[in-house]
UniProtKB/TrEMBL annotation:
Keyword field: Signal
InterPro entries: Leu-bd, Peripla_BP_I
Compositionally biased intervals (Basic and acidic residues): 14-24
Region Disordered: start-end pairs: 1-34
Stated family: Belongs to the leucine-binding protein family.
Protein name: Leucine-binding protein domain-containing protein
Natural source organism: Streptomyces shaanxiensis
Every Leucine-binding protein domain range: 35-393
PANTHER family in the record: BLR6548 PROTEIN
Entry keyword Signal: yes
UniProt cross-references to SUPFAM superfamilies, sorted A to Z: Periplasmic binding protein-like I
Length: 417
């Protein structure tokens, strides 16, 4: 599960700063076949801060650039229209209107929105939204929206099942089985989304038999040193978080300062980046205890052909991240759907039909098989696989086993989004 949260530092940007920048791919020269137009909505200038949400966009654009260099889809290039929603619901609705009603995009790809307020409008227009990041509940609520990790929910306009979503305990089972962990701390902000996700983590840990230490810090003025001191006092084996990357770095610094050592400081896919050495430069002990879990192949696994192609196409970027790889996978997913529709026409309806029938999609091995099932009742348990990596200075993120065989039959616990 992915959680994107507002940072603890800095002030909110005024609405005037949430401007839409026209960075569209230029129109095709005369004589070329009509391009296939797609839209990418990103909270690029959100209150969370620069570059927090741009990874999926950058990965998707890199894929489309390479695709176009190789002839596009059946001789048609893919034209990308971008829109920055500024991290606000108002801005998001404006982006949805601009891309769907004015630009007439065939699909949205790799959506990464802090507040996906326009999701219902996307669904009502029957525009397929492919490979978006499930920061909120939209991808478990509406038809025609296809999150990067899939969904088993009915998606008939109500979130999950009767307003509740479900998550598994596979991450906690992994650390219990592989590392003998017994005590886990959960650090969150006193902010609704952060606190809600933390409650889910706490329930999952308790279901797996952990002793749980709950730690909450003030959203505006977090006292990470006090949290770190308590983690040391409680003797936590693991630390999980429901906070942003900047907060994670400050927490790690505080843990090193007070001498709080843990088996693993476990973070989520949003913080799985190549900038760890810089971001955590003042926390060497905690830095080398960082672990990340997710549902996609480690972007450092260059021995894998699909990862190597991604890295080659993105070598111009200053840094790499797991979200970039997932944006690349989202663009590949759209492209596979568009190719399947090439003979009859790449339309919204055809692409959506192809997506609706997607079962077990892997993006050439980059994703754990993705499913959309629309189950009438939530599953009580599920076999779930996960990708695990650990940071090591000098090596970067090192995969821990293969994601398609690191699997567990685990209970599915409900939570209120």
């Amino acid at each position: 599960m992915v959680l994107a949260l507002s940072t603890a530092c800095g002030s909110r940007l005024p609405e005037s700063d949430f401007e839409h920048r026209d960075r569209s791919t230029p129109s095709a020269p005369a004589g070329e076949r009509t391009p296939i137009r797609v839209g990418i909505i990103t909270s690029a200038t959100s209150p969370v801060g620069g570059n927090a949400f741009t990874g999926p966009r950058d990965g998707a654009k890199a894929f489309f650039d390479r695709l176009n260099a190789r002839g596009g889809v059946d001789g048609r290039r893919v034209e990308v229209r971008e829109c920055d929603d500024g991290g606000s619901g108002v801005g998001n609705n404006e982006c949805v209107h601009e891309l769907i009603d004015e630009d007439k995009v065939v699909a949205l790809v790799a959506t990464t929105a802090l507040d996906y307020a326009g999701a219902s409008r996307v669904s009502h227009a029957r525009v397929p939204d492919i490979g978006g990041q499930p920061i909120g509940a939209a991808y478990d609520t509406y038809p025609h929206l296809y999150g990067i990790y899939g969904s088993l929910a009915p998606r008939s306009g109500t979130t999950g099942w009767d307003g509740k979503q479900y998550g598994g305990t596979e991450v906690y089972r992994y650390f219990k089985r592989e590392h003998g962990a017994r005590t886990a701390a959960v650090v969150s902000y006193n902010q609704p989304a952060s606190a809600a996700y933390a409650r889910l983590v706490e329930r999952g840990l308790k279901a797996e038999g952990y002793e749980v230490v709950a730690e909450q810090v003030d959203f505006a003025l977090p006292n990470f040193r006090a949290v770190a001191a308590d983690l040391k006092e409680q003797g936590a084996d693991l630390v999980f978080d429901a906070i942003d990357s900047h907060g994670n770095a400050r927490l790690c610094e505080a843990m090193d300062d007070v001498g709080a050592e843990v088996t693993a400081k476990v973070t989520n896919v949003q913080n799985w980046t190549s900038t760890v050495a810089e971001d955590y430069k003042d926390a060497p002990r905690c830095r080398n205890a960082l672990w990340a879990t997710g549902s996609s192949r480690n972007f450092e696994d260059k021995d894998q052909d699909a990862v190597r192609e991604f890295r080659d196409a993105t070598n111009h970027l200053e840094a790499h991240s797991q979200w970039q790889l997932e944006g690349w996978a989202a663009a590949m997913w759209f492209t596979d759907a568009a190719k399947a529709c090439a003979d009859q026409g790449v339309t919204r309806a055809c692409v959506d039909d192809h997506m609706n029938r997607s079962q077990g999609y892997t993006a050439d091995g980059l994703l754990i098989p993705v499913r959309f099932e629309r189950l009438a009742e939530p599953p009580k348990s599920r076999r779930t696989c996960l990708s695990v990596a650990r940071w090591e200075d000098g090596r970067g993120w090192v995969a821990q086993g293969d994601m398609n065989s690191t699997c567990f039959e685990v209970p599915q616990l409900s939570y209120q989004p």
